[in-house]
Structures are given as C-alpha cells and as structure tokens.
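Just curious: can you write a single protein's sequence together with how it folds?
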Amino acid sequence: QYTFLNKIHIFIISTDSPTRIHTLKLLYAHLPKRSNNAALYYGEYLQVPKLLSCQTLKSQEHGVNAHDEHLFVIIHQTYELWFKQILHELRSVTSIFKQSKIAECDIFKAVSRLRRVVEIQRVLVSQLTILETMTPLGFLEFRDFLFPASGFQSVQWRMIENLLGLQRKQRVQYGHRQYCSYLNAQDAKVVQSVESEPSIHELVEKWLERTPYLSSKEFNFWDHYRKAVEDMLEKDRQSIKKNTKITQEKKDIQLQEIEVSAQHFRSLFDKDSHEEMKRKGHRRLSQKAMQAALFITLYQDEPILHMPFQLLNTLLEIDECMTLWRYRHSLMVHRMIGARIGTGGSSGFHYLKSTATRHRIFKDFFNLSTFLIPRVRMPELPQSVKSALDFSYDD
C-alpha cells in the first residue's frame, strides 16, 4: 500500500496541472468521509446531551423538592458505567483463559486488565464518601418514592459476581427468595446465562492444573516440601515442650494448634483429605490447582513465575476490594436507614453485612499463606528446573 501511494505521489507531482487536479479529485472521492462532512465534536462523540438527560427525579414527579435525589441518581448511574467497564475487562480476561495454550504476553494482558478492575473498585469505594454527604433526613425526603426498586436489581453487578465465580449456593438469600427472583424476566435470563458460563475462577483453576515443574523424574517438589514442613512442625513441637515459662495447659493448647496446622498441610499431600475439606466447604480449588498456586507463591521470584504470581495476587485484591465495598456499603446503609427494611424488602444493613463475609470468591488464594514456609527451609530447585524457570538468551 505504501509503495502504491508513493508511486501515485510521484505521478501527481510529475504531471501537468489539469491532470494533477483530476487525479486528486479521484483520490479524494475514494477517501472515507463522515456522513455530514463535519469534524468530530466532543459532545457528539460522547453523546453528552443524551447522558445528561438521563437524570429523572421521582420526587419532582410527586411535586417534592428533594435536593439530594439528584446526587443519589448521579452516583448510582456512575456505578453502572463503572460496572460496564469492569465487565468489559473481565470478558477480555475470560477470552484469554479459554485458550488451550496461554502465552506469557497474554498473562501480562490479563494482569494489566485485572489491575484496572482493582483501581475502578477503589473509585467505587471512594464514591460512597460522596454519597455520605447526604444526611439521613435528606434521604428520607425521596426514599419512599423508590419502592420497590433496589440495588439488588443491578443486573451488571450480578453479572460481575457470576463472571468472577460467585456460586449460587454461596449467596445469602434475602426474603427467603433466590436473587434472580427480584429481577424482571428479561434481566433474570441475562444474569442466569452468565451464571452458566465458565467463570474466571473455573478458568484459572484449569490453567493452574496445567502448571509444569511440580514434578519431574529428577525432582519431586512435594517430597522435598513435605519433609521441610514436617521438620518445621516438629521443631515447633519441641520448642513448646521445652518452654518452662508456660503452664502445661497452655502447652497442650499450643500443641493442639500445631496438630490443626498439620492437618491443613496434610490435605496438600493427601487427596482424600483435600476432598473432605472441599466437601465441608473449606476448599474450592482442586488439589492440583492448590498445589500449583502454592508453588507459584513460594517461588514467585523466579522470572517465569512472576506474572502468574501477579495474577493470583490481583484476583485476591479484587476479592478484597469487593468485600470492602460491600462492608462500606452496609455501613452507609446503616447510617442512612438504621435497622429499617431496605427498599427492596431485605433486612438492609444486616443483609449487606452478611454478604461481605459470605460472598467471597478467591478464599483459597487468601489461605495460601497458611502453607508458606521460610525461604531458608524451602526446597532448593535443581539447576535444570531453575533454568527452565528463567528467561535466557543465547548470543
């Protein structure tokens, strides 16, 4: 294309004026043009007039001058715009992890987009501070006009939860009804369709299960790691038993705590123990995925594991930010309506507070710290494995 245009350019400047003008007219006729031949305008591009006409106040429809309703509408519309951007980022991440083979550059893309989600979540939390400039009395001026609409009916928020991997059995019920029952038929269908898709949790679990280097003919990481754990726990037992400054009762309590830790470690090595913990709801990841996540966390400094570690850590941050947003939201609701029933018919503050602890998605990544051991006790990787985990250049 460049060569062709260059030849055209030479042809134009080497011809006489009438031919040159004729050629320019032909070229111009084939250039893409805007339909109205006008330059792009800021307000038109962003559809600002349409955006600014979306604030319809229910209090005005009832002849009431509720000043703070305008802020209430703006804040929640802004939330929905940010939710749309979060979904845009999460969709791109799911498309990456649906691939059978994921390149390092794709992991970088996924981490970058998930980091963007984290920063958006921080903005969502900070927006509550703006909403809290509204007083409870200011809210009461228009609250009764909102029934039965509620934030529970945010389709995009439910899509975000499902896309990340929140399970239906985890959800706290309000009004003894399933969460989709508060949506209209069309919205419920959209949310349920996302619920049936592979979630980021499921896709990352499958990706973790494909992690290499966990075991090879020359090196079995888990044999070495298990020995290091057993030595560490035995050292802790002996330290407690030899401690003359505490009573026998306290020694027994501390020794029992070590046995509980030993049971958690055992589940990493024993498949039956792991499945039992999954059955009780203490684990969600498969044993193989859990082992891979731990290996990545322990050897995060190795070059090829740095981006995978950042991925796990960013998913943990997303879960943390969602928990923080839910908790801050519950405090704001408590501040505004006390112990009253919410506009959607739920117990308001108490429901929102319970979701902060129950609606966690990546708890297994939080629990990885349970299985960390000091660097000095970590199994030393053989040179062949270290070389495979490094980026090398052969000059």
